[in-house]
Amino acid sequence: MMHEDKFDRGSALTIFKSDRHEDLAALGLSLLIALLVYLLV
After folding, report:
1. Percent of the chain with pLDDT over 90
2. Neighbour-count burial of 22, counting CB atoms closer than 10 A to its CB (0-12 exposed, 13-18 middle, 19+ buried)
3. How far apart are CA 12 and CA 2, in angstroms?
4. Using CA of residue 14, residue 17, residue 18, residue 22, what is the dihedral sign?
5. Less Cβ crowding at N or C end of the chain, within 10 Å?
6. What pLDDT score does 33 carry?
7. Dihedral of CA 21/22/25/27: which sign?
8. How far apart, in Å, are the Cα atoms of 41 and each of 21, 26, 27?
9. Taking the CA of residue 35 as centre, how many other CA atoms within 13 Å lie in the half-sphere pointing to its CB?
10. What is the pLDDT of residue 4?
């Protein structure tokens, strides 16, 4: 029997071990992009 998660995340393509780490990395990346746009435009 396969290990079942609490919910289906829709994709197994991730380099992180947990959704929380992935969400924090995405948040940090988006803030970095926003800062660069603010400074360069």
Report:
1. 37
2. middle
3. 14
4. negative
5. N
6. 97
7. negative
8. 30, 22, 21
9. 6
10. 57
